[in-house]
Write a structure and sequence with these properties.
This protein has one domain (about 40-155). Helices cover about 50% and strands about 5% of the residues. The chain contains 8 helices and 2 strands. Helix 2 packs across helix 4 and helix 6 packs antiparallel against helix 8. The radius of gyration is 21 Å and the shape is elongated.
Length: about 160
């Protein structure tokens, strides 16, 4: 404690954070990362590219508020790289796309994505089509089978 008239000592900064090395390229989600509420995301007609980048890693986009991203950027380097890739192909990070579009793009560039996202895409990408009165029960069954096979094929490859 300083005496009256003496200048105060500046506080010390914490030690720098040491990045984890040697992951071998494997996807490692931080333990503190929140898992997305897939039931909620399934109801979204479109998502912003920055949200899609989080979802493709299986991280809840609500972890970083939109205001914080604009002010400080995206703290997770993996997510930031996916945002840049998506922006390069689709527009700025606020561009709205369907999860199906994002999923198909991710497959085309060999991204690892969570199986929950695969299920959401398979069950929602054709939802409007399945509910159309023009579709017969037989066509609906074929479409459901194709969606199921799409999930299986992407998990095997």
């Amino acid at each position: 404690m300083s005496k009256p008239g003496e200048p105060k000592k500046p506080s010390r900064a914490p030690a720098p954070i040491t990045p984890i090395r040697g992951t071998g390229g494997a996807v490692q989600i931080p333990e503190s990362a929140s898992i997305p509420d897939w039931k909620f995301w399934r109801t979204m007609k479109t998502v912003a590219l920055w949200q899609a980048a989080y979802l493709t890693w299986g991280i809840d986009p609500d972890e970083d508020s939109r205001r914080d991203i604009e002010s400080f950027g995206i703290s997770d380097e993996k997510v930031a790289k996916r945002v840049r890739t998506l922006e390069n192909h689709f527009g700025n990070m606020n561009t709205q796309k369907t999860l199906s579009d994002i999923f198909d793009f991710g497959l085309s560039v060999n991204w690892e994505m969570p199986s929950e996202l695969k299920v959401v895409v398979a069950t929602t990408s054709k939802a409007n089509t399945l509910n159309s009165t023009e579709w017969t029960a037989e066509k609906r069954a074929v479409l459901r089978t194709e969606s199921y096979n799409r999930i299986l094929c992407t998990e095997v490859s």
